[in-house]
Write a structure and sequence with these properties.
The protein is an alpha/beta fold and 285 residues long. The protein folds into two domains: 4-209, no CATH class; 216-284, no CATH class. Helix content is 60%, strand content 13%. It has eleven helices and seven strands. It has helices at 14-25, 29-52, 79-107, 111-127, 135-144, 150-174, 180-198, 200-213, 232-235, 260-270, 280-284, and strands spanning 4-7, 10-12, 57-63, 66-71, 220-226, 243-249, 256-259. The strands form two sheets. It has a four-stranded mixed beta sheet with strand order 1-2-3-4. Strands 5-6-7 form a three-stranded mixed beta sheet. Residues 1-8 have low confidence and may be disordered.
Length: 285
């Protein structure tokens, strides 16, 4: 969905304005300001941490109960760095809780402080749900990509994301807790997951292009026995962030090992959809 561009690096999602109008009509302006402030602090935590690591951030996008720091570095940075950037958002809620507690102790109880504490906890727990593109969903993806291929990790992440949406929606229905904001948020998450599923091939291809430009020989190797008839594009489905696959051609007249980097370079240079592993030794010669 398109967003309204207010500043070069800040975008506001249309659903955000629906929530603002709803808050105005119901007299919940103060609550809305508190909600937006907490969301903004959460996203700035992601933003400044990403900038600290030198990420190229294209925009900060705000939507219902959350937002996103959009960067070209997604999926291309070391595991610890990606997790640090993701967790920088939820960690902001800790000092917010501390500040609210100090204010309540020094100033006494106040309805707005109670509202701020409630929203702070809700946003924290909401963002940690294993739903894409929330922080919890991205953490699941990064962890899976340490043990499985990029392609399988993305598909499993989206599967668990759809399952989590279904479970939360079922609970809200059975407990009769649906609100207007909840319906908008659920619709937004469903649309985002459907779009991510549809562009999974594009996402995979973009990741392969990144891998083709980097030197992966320092990664821990995994040797796989394959036949010469195996397609290069099928071999690349095994690619993952922390391993370098080495394909042993069993049926070759000469013992030959095809490096994953060779597969990537040949795939993009030759642009042959039916290129097979048996063709790579010839290309190397």
């Amino acid at each position: 969905m398109k967003v309204l561009n207010l500043l070069p690096s800040i975008h506001i999602h249309p659903l955000f304005f629906l929530l603002a109008i709803s808050a105005f009509l119901t007299g919940a302006i103060y609550e809305f300001v508190i909600l937006f402030s907490i969301v903004m602090i959460h996203e700035l935590g992601h933003f400044f941490t990403a900038k600290h690591f030198g990420w190229r951030v294209t925009k900060i996008e705000f939507w219902l109960f959350g937002g996103a720091v959009v960067s070209e570095e997604h999926n291309t940075r070391p595991f610890r760095e990606q997790v640090t950037v993701i967790m920088a958002g939820p960690l902001q809620h800790i000092w917010i809780f501390a500040v609210l507690t100090i204010l309540q102790v020094t100033m006494g109880p106040h309805p707005l402080l109670s509202v701020a504490g409630f929203y702070n906890g809700v946003i924290l727990l909401f963002n940690l749900l294993p739903i894409w593109p929330l922080d919890g969903g991205k953490i699941i993806f990064y962890m899976m990509n340490q043990a499985a291929s990029f392609r399988r990790s993305l598909m499993l992440t989206l599967f668990f994301s759809f399952l989590a949406i279904l479970l939360v929606a079922s609970w809200l229905t059975l407990d009769e807790r649906w609100t207007f904001a909840g319906i908008l948020l659920a619709a937004f998450l469903i649309v985002e997951n459907v779009l991510e599923w549809r562009r999974r091939t594009y996402t995979q291809m973009r990741y392969l292009m990144h891998c083709a430009l980097e030197d992966r020989r320092h990664l821990r190797p995994i040797y796989i026995n394959v036949t010469e008839e195996m397609l290069v594009r099928d071999a690349l489905k095994n690619i993952r962030s922390n391993r370098n696959h080495l394909y042993v051609l069993k049926e070759s007249p000469l013992f030959y090992i095809v490096d994953e980097q060779e597969c990537l370079q040949a795939y993009f240079e030759k642009k042959d959809f039916d290129l097979r592993l048996r063709d790579l030794p010839k290309i190397a010669l």
